[in-house]
Amino acid sequence: MAASTLTMLRERVHGDVVMPGDVDYEDARHVYNFMIDKHPAAVVRCTDASDVQAVVNQASESGRGVAVRGGGHSVPGFGTADDAIVADLSAMNQVKVDAQRRIARVGGGATWNMMNEGTTAHGLATTGGIVSTTGVGGLTLGGGIGYLARKHGLSCDNLRSAEVVLADGRIVTASADSEPDLFWALRGGGGNFGAVTEFEFELHPLGDVYGGPMLFELSDAPDILRFYREFIADAPREFGGFPAWQIAPPLPFVPENRVGEPFIAIVACWTGDHAEGAQLIDAFRDVARPVSEMVGPMPYAALNSMFDPLVPRGLQHYWKAAYVKELTDEAITAHLTHGPRVPVVNSTMHLYPINGACHDVAPDATAFAHRDANFACVIAGMWPDPADNEANTAWVRDYYAAIAPYSEAGGYINFASMDDQAKVRDNYGTTYGQLADVKRQYDPGNMFHFNQNIEPAR
Ligand SMILES: Cc1cc2nc3c(=O)[nH]c(=O)nc-3n(C[C@H](O)[C@H](O)[C@H](O)COP(=O)(O)OP(=O)(O)OC[C@H]3O[C@@H](n4cnc5c(N)ncnc54)[C@H](O)[C@@H]3O)c2cc1C
């Protein structure tokens, strides 16, 4: 970047501006997925909305793109880009809870562990993801699927308002009463419409949950998956668990001689009365005897961070996503063929239930259109060594190809990879046209294009 532009940027913002050649540039240019190897012109560690506004104005004047980074977890690495200016919001991570009104105001760069820390002290929570190091920003803007979704809807369904820096540099508040089109688009349309500097969420009472993982033999997988399909169709909304393939990690609850073997897992989460939950979860033990399990009462934050150690920053990531209306026998057969071949302990397939409260919202009420899907399936390839890229991406691709005939054309935008842009219309689904209209209204020049991109309507 030209020296004059750099000086101007440094003069305009309060936060650090990290440029090529600076000591921490190597760290600053990287995001969570280390397969991404981009060299931005500058990374601005924004401290407040005016810093973000300055970045947007500077990018606009210098003709550069802005890559907005929340938690930095996007698998395609949208929080960094060659020659772009990165607005790194990670220092904007405050969580202010109004326990009486059951509202949290959350900085655009906060992660779910910060959110949990702020809310669970008050016995409150809202829907977040499954891993607590993920950003509130990207996860919510794409929809937000997690343990509490069947009970309280997607994360975006719990959004009450958002403060947004727009492509023209204005700062607006989007809510049901103010900039309603923008507010509609922010709930499922990803980072296409501006940089959100603060989210306001509705919270719900939540004490300790009852849950945790149960590992079953692969030979029991057909019965477990078929039982799960029937069970989840009308399970009480307090149940938010899902099946997964999991290589057993070396943890105290796993028998030493079974560490390293693949299993079918049920990761249970029950938010109601614990005795009732224990009884309900017993139904899985009636189908097959778990090889090992770690199920019991625990703080929601503990369950929400249980998988964190398996997925540290710096792995290679390649993921595929599919919405599923009906988990057919054929689909289960495809899962049974590919799931047990999960290559490493970090990789998995999760089949998240998105019925219950997710279905209470009309398909056109928010930008998240897939309200008739019952499951969001993610095949998440995550591994440490770049030398293994070919084998691991092949596992994800082959698995996805096998389930695709029994899935919807689209998948959850937040689980899509860098080569999924051709599927973007299907991924957004029936709201794509309206999203393109809102995009034209708020970002006609497509300044915010480092995302599952919606082109402005002509
Ligand atoms: C280990 C792991 C576990 C996951 N688990 C779940 C899960 O359980 N449920 C689920 O729904 N998803 C999950 N995801 C997917 C996750 O929702 C996406 O990766 C999401 O994009 C992450 O958001 P982020 O803010 O961390 O990412 P970033 O890479 O920072 O951003 C992702 C996208 O959102 C935009 N963005 C981020 N913050 C803002 C903001 N404040 N304003 C405007 N745009 C913004 C970025 O520009 C970018 O386009 C998981 C991802 C990982 C890697």
Structural class, by secondary structure, is alpha+beta
Classify the helix fraction into a percent range.
25-40%
The backbone outline, from C-alpha atoms, is globular
Measured between the Cα atoms of the first and last residue, the distance is 32 Å
Mean of pLDDT: 97
Q: List the quaternary state of the chains.
A: single chain
Note poorly predicted spans.
none
Strand content: 15-25%
Largest beta-sheet characterization: 5 strands, antiparallel
| Tally of contiguous helical segments | 14
Number of strands: 19
Please compute the radius of gyration using only Cα atoms.
21 Å
Strand order within the widest beta sheet: 5-6-10-8-9
Bound molecules: flavin-adenine dinucleotide
Brief account:
The protein is 28% helix and 22% strand. The chain is α+β, with helices and mostly antiparallel strands and 458 residues long. Helix 11 (329-338) runs antiparallel to helix 12 (389-403).
What does this structure look like?
This protein has 458 residues and is of the alpha+beta class. 28% of the residues lie in helices and 22% in strands. The chain contains 14 helices and 19 strands. The strands form five sheets. Strands 5-6-10-8-9 form a five-stranded antiparallel sheet. Strands 12, 13, 14, 15 and 16 form a five-stranded antiparallel sheet that branches. Strands 1-2-4-3 form a four-stranded mixed sheet. A hairpin with a 5-residue loop joins strand 8 and strand 9. Helix 1 packs antiparallel against helix 3, helix 8 packs across helix 11 and helix 11 packs antiparallel against helix 12. The longest helix has 15 residues. 55% of the residues are buried. The mean pLDDT is 97. The structure holds flavin-adenine dinucleotide.
